[in-house]
Design goal:
mainly alpha, Rossmann fold, two-stranded parallel sheet, 6 helices, about 5% strand, binds 4-nitrophenyl phosphate
């Protein structure tokens, strides 16, 4: 799960996805990072922590980090929150296998081209909207994994 600062959106995406993997007993791991590393080592933004807790998800132990080139090999799927971060990730590798792993998270199920908007300069309701978008798409992604695991 990748955003810009790894303090607002991608920590929420990581926490929500982890909760879905637990809920459906799916054997995958999830992590998050930022294309920028200015917030390296910081806790998630207090507004993300609050909104997540309101929904029973504790993200307070997460710490921000920058996206590493090794992440392209460590992970099978790399979900960017918006097109800017999607393009930054694509610009960081020329490897076609790496390129194939990178997608816009809201495109995961139906290709809407929708972005998860950056709530950093917004208010709590903007964080709530981000939470809802991510909860919906992570549920769909998890259910797709469940379906695939039942077929295999
Ligand atoms: P995020 O939000 O990419 O969702 O973590 C941001 C956090 C920090 C900054 C920008 C966006 N910043 O400019 O420091």
């Amino acid at each position: 799960m990748v955003c810009l600062g790894n303090i607002c959106r991608s920590p929420l995406a990581e926490g929500i996805m982890k909760a879905k993997l637990d809920k459906y007993n799916l054997p995958y791991s999830v992590d998050s990072a930022g294309t920028g590393n200015w917030h390296e080592g910081e806790s998630p933004d207090h507004r993300s922590v609050k909104i997540a807790l309101e929904n029973g998800v504790d993200i307070s132990n997460q710490r921000a980090r920058g996206f590493n080139p090794e992440d392209f090999d460590r992970f099978d799927l790399i979900y960017a929150m918006d097109k800017s971060n999607l393009n930054t990730l694509k610009d960081r590798t020329t490897n076609t296998a790496h390129h194939a792993k990178i997608r816009l998270i809201m495109d995961a199920m139906s290709k809407t081209g929708k972005e998860v908007p950056d709530p950093y300069y917004g208010n709590l309701n903007d964080f709530r909207d981000v939470y809802c978008m991510l909860d919906e798409i992570c549920e769909e992604i998890a259910l797709d994994f469940v379906e695939k695991s039942q077929k295999s």
